[in-house]
Design brief:
The complex is a heterodimer of chains A (80) and B (435). Chain A is an alpha+beta fold. Chain A is built from 4 helices and 2 strands. Chain B has 15 helices and 13 strands. The chains are: A alpha+beta (80), B alpha+beta (435).
């Protein structure tokens, strides 16, 4: 599988998850069970730099989701 | 005077201790008067005081949990904080924390500190925490648009990077080491800087199931408490003998040199009693004093440092120095606090640290594969067993790793581990031992 197909597989997998928009790094490892976690981490972090994915951090833990999906910081204030 | 009434916070200014409330009020007043071109709300500290007062009244926190903030290309170093009462406290609508990677052992010039404070007054709240428990400089409170601006100024004008947060490698931290301390068994600052530079990717981009901390203590006194706080604790040790200057020992006994560097001089404790204050307190009972000569049976010494701390001019660490490597400390979120477990009793710590880096990478690969989400390394070791961890590190079990037989941790020997192996007839065994 080429890098573009890897990216598409990640995007498609995340889009399929209903009701969940932010994921642990380990959830991405499950998409590529035959690869080393370090390799998957590099791809995921590259996709963040490219603006496809984005980080969400509580301060202690980091989650990753599709950019723009779910709660955003500029709308968080407006939520009731 | 601050604009808001804060009767409950005012209570915290009473008594003899310094008060963070007084500090905040001082900053609020300074912001009101300053002619600095403030890029964040002038009233942010006032609003912070008001919000904290409300928290005390309501007995609930008024910060939302985390957020999508950061600087471009970084997945750590910024902790998003949004207030859930933005209309009443607009100055702290968004009030993010930035972690700044402290230099090794926290050596600063006063010029650098002035520059950090000037930057944070202009582009942040002016409030800092020197330092956070991981060791970083904590810059408390700025708005979302200021994050990139602060980062640009830090990196371009101050030659300064952000630290770690989230599921990243956290900012490595070390004791003062050889810069000022005669007990340092290796150069803690050199390795701390080297590991910070080597593992930049892990420090700035989420890489793990949860946080991971390196801490470097130059000796077992543990000034950065690596054994209690780090997933990987590198603690200075020596493997030869404690060096004894018998003349100096007698000078301590004779009262010519004050014990403990004169630290306990607040009251009269009487004359120094080497038997009572040193020999009898040795945890492994490996010392003797015949009235003239101090003896140490070094094979029993567990490097507790007590005798050296009491008589630093008479006793010195050995000359064959390095470090003990321990893994798995953590604070109490799940199952209580845990101290690091001794895994490598002794390793020479010398540049380029290849042996240590090999271990680090084996451990990270294992934890990334096997660790559950939000599971610290110490919890994984506890879940899967120390024996499994030794296999991952490609190390043999060693009596020095345990406190006492059949206690911590428990090693089940495999047949291939035991010279000659063994044969067991399961049917014979079952005759005497039912399932």
């Amino acid at each position: 599988m080429g890098p573009e197909e890897d990216r598409q597989l990640i995007v498609d997998t995340l889009k399929k998850k209903k009701g969940k928009t932010k994921f642990y790094l380990k959830d991405f490892n499950k998409i590529f069970p035959d690869r080393k976690p370090r390799e998957v981490k590099k791809l995921v972090n590259k996709m963040v730099t490219e603006g496809i994915l984005e980080y969400w951090s509580s301060g202690s833990t980091t989650l990753i989701g599709l950019k723009g999906a779910g709660k955003q910081h500029d709308t968080e204030e407006k939520d009731e | 005077m601050t604009k808001r009434k804060t009767p409950m916070l005012d209570e915290l200014e009473k008594g003899s201790w310094p008060s963070f409330v007084s500090d905040m009020k001082q900053e609020a007043e300074a912001r009101e008067k300053t002619d600095v071109d403030l890029q964040t709300p002038r009233e942010c500290v006032d609003d912070l005081l008001g919000l904290l007062e409300l928290t005390y009244v309501d007995k609930v926190v008024h910060w939302k949990h985390g957020g999508i903030v950061g600087v471009f290309g970084y997945g750590g170093g910024v902790i998003g904080r949004y207030c859930d009462q933005p209309e009443e406290f607009p100055g702290v609508r968004d009030f993010h924390t930035m972690r700044v990677n402290q230099p090794s052992s926290k050596f600063y010039s006063s010029e650098y500190l002035r520059q950090v404070c000037e930057l944070w007054e202009r582009r942040g709240s002016g409030l800092t925490n020197m330092h956070g428990s991981t060791g970083d400089i904590i810059l408390l409170g700025t708005t979302t648009p200021q994050l990139e601006e602060v980062f640009w100024e830090l990196t371009h004008n101050l030659d300064q990077d952000l630290g770690g947060s989230g599921s990243n490698l956290r900012t490595p931290s070390c004791c003062i080491g050889k810069a000022r301390c005669e007990f340092a068994c290796y150069d803690t600052q050199a390795i701390c800087t080297e590991f910070t530079m080597e593992y930049q990717d892990e420090l700035h981009r989420p890489a793990f199931p949860y946080k991971f901390k390196f801490k470097f203590d130059g000796c077992p006194n543990g000034c950065v408490a690596a054994i209690a706080r780090a997933d990987m604790s590198i603690i200075g040790a020596w493997r030869d003998d404690i060096r004894i200057d018998q003349e100096a020992v007698n000078a301590y006994v004779g009262g010519e040199i004050k014990p403990n560097g004169g630290a306990h001089s607040g009251r009269d404790w009487g004359a120094f009693d080497i038997q009572k204050e040193v020999v009898d307190l040795c945890p492994t009972e490996c010392m003797s004093w015949d009235g003239k000569k101090l003896g140490i049976y070094n094979k029993e010494c567990n490097r507790c440092m007590h005798c050296i701390n009491v008589m630093p001019r008479a006793l010195r660490i050995g000359e064959d120095t390095g470090a003990s490597i321990l893994f798995g400390a953590k604070a109490p979120i799940l199952e209580g606090a845990q101290m690091s477990t001794l895994t490598i009793p002794f390793m020479k710590i010398e540049e380029p640290y290849e042996e240590l880096k090999d271990i680090v990478e084996k451990v990270w690969d294992y934890w990334s594969e096997e660790g559950k989400n939000r599971e610290r390394l110490g919890e994984l070791i506890q879940r899967e067993g120390f024996q499994k961890f030794l296999e991952v590190c490609e190390l043999d079990a060693d009596p020095r790793m345990i406190q006492e037989p059949r206690s911590n941790p428990y090693i089940f020997w495999k047949e291939e581990d035991v010279p000659g192996g063994w044969e067991r007839d399961i049917n014979e065994f079952r005759k005497k031992h039912q399932k």
